[in-house]
From TrEMBL:
Natural source organism: Rummeliibacillus stabekisii
Major localization class: cytoplasm
This protein's record includes keyword Hydrolase: no
Subcellular location: Cytoplasm
Protein encoded by which gene: rimP
InterPro entries, per the entry: Ribosome_maturation_RimP, RimP_C, RimP_C_sf, RimP_N, RimP_N_sf
GO cellular component: cytosol
Known role: Required for maturation of 30S ribosomal subunits.
Keywords for the protein's UniProt record, in alphabetical order: Cytoplasm, Ribosome biogenesis
Name the UniProt record assigns to this protein: Ribosome maturation factor RimP
Family per similarity comment: Belongs to the RimP family.
GO terms (BP aspect): ribosomal small subunit assembly; translation
Amino acid sequence: MSKVTTEVEQLVTPIVESLNLELVEIEFVKEGREWFLRVYVDTPEGSIDIEQCAQVSELLSEKLDEVDPIEQNYFLEVSSPGAERPLKKEADFVKAVNQFVHIKSYEPINGMKEFEGYLESYTDEGAELAVKIKTRKIKVLIPKDKIAKARLAIDFSAER
């Protein structure tokens, strides 16, 4: 995490918790000449609405104006994490069991670094996926410490 995202996390966490929401992710990125502070929030059930996002945006904007932790001019965006929400915390992975996910690993496992499949379990050992490779399905265990990035994904094959 960058210094900015760490500071923003400290400001937004009490706001999000007071509204019974979850902080999913914070990004501070430059696109072209513009800076964007993106805050992704959701409900525990995964069904946030635009009014809740607007409420977080308003409260966070007031706090950011008060504390002023960011030197650059930027646009604040508060939104849901979307259909392909990132999986970062252990609770995210546990909630994603039986769902279709995309996982990148730091190093090859079975000769691959990217996997898409149904998350069958998430234990102390790692994430076990049912992955389809060509015409056969295999189970792959990706150790926790080898997971570089993970997110929910959309299964366009409509096969399970």
